[in-house]
Amino acid sequence: LRPMKRIIRQTHGMTLLDLLVTMSIISVLVAMSLGTIVQVREAAEGAACMGRLGNLGLSFVYYAQENEGRMPRTIGGNWLVDLNAYGLLPDSDYLLCPADPDPLSRPPHDTSFAGNCWLHKAVLAAVDRPSKRMILGDMGNDIHGLSVYCARCAENFGVDGFRHVGQRANFLFADGHTNTVAISEVGDRLW
Fold this sequence. Notes:
The structure is a single chain. This protein is of the alpha+beta class. The chain has helices at residues 16-66, 78-85, 186-189; strands at residues 113-116, 134-138, 148-149, 168-173, 178-182. It has a five-stranded mixed sheet with strand order 3-1-2-4-5. Strand 4 and strand 5 (178-182) form a beta hairpin. The longest helix has 51 residues, at 16-66. The protein starts with 15 loop residues before the first helix and ends with a helix.
């Protein structure tokens, strides 16, 4: 019989090159996922904003039911006063768009949303083409310090108001639906 030879393997730890390759692979994967994380966050903010507009839309409908079909005053943020008088304002967080970069700079009404002054105290059932007429929109710039959409062109909204992906803003329409609208679509569709 022959004696068995012992096979001894010598193990080496990770070399510096192995460590560098591993670190570079991890950093590439992290860099690739960061773009996706930002997109997911922006999409979530947009969805939360539309949900908040939808809740405010229900408040507008309840208000109209109690006031002979008339909507609240939409000039100068008075819709907040009108809805609050009936206890129809949801939690104050619902008055701010999550994508609003500076929500505390919204005087005098502390909201990211503005009303369409063309529908000021309008009868909800009499609104022409309600699926095309916005009641509220999320905006970045107040016009003359008032939370109101009075102009018929996008220049008066300011590009900052279209803070969602692709220069888009969220709107609540008179028929109760919410939608994201590009800056180029504002003039014809909303008035």
